[in-house]
Amino acid sequence: AALADSDERRALDVLDNLHALAESRRLPRLTMYCLAEQVRIHSLHARNETVGHLIHRLEFLEPRFAEHDYRPLQLQYRLAVAIARAYAALGRGDLDAAEQALAIADLLAAQTHRGRDALTVKVLRAITCWKRNSAGALPLLSEALGLAAIGGNARLLADTHPWAVRMATELELLP
Question: Is the pTM of this model over 0.70?
């Protein structure tokens, strides 16, 4: 909500507070999502050093999700990390690394039946195609928008990446 109001500072403050709560209550899934969302926000502004630090903190959680109690969440963790790595790679302008991370994320989203994450991955894949001037961008973005409309997700592009909104406008998919 804070980001929708263009208040990045407040959004990051909320995430910092949620992260502190997650750490104090030993909630690794909440910790994971707080870090992944911070990666997304900072990567949109190419704050690559900060993003690298956050990715490292996210990867540091891996042994926790290998523990017996958290093993059922392991695929969800791997998906969040793959998407975060894709955002980080896009922020650095490394399209090859973004495509590699998105290929992993695409498989994990399908395997875990996480529809919203699958749409995010599809939009990010469309962005990488668009950045490469590939004809694959339009079909991917059109499909993501169609599926989002079915699910009532009007903010898919804006919530995923500002480049997605620009791309959809340029490809005349948005009014």
Answer: yes
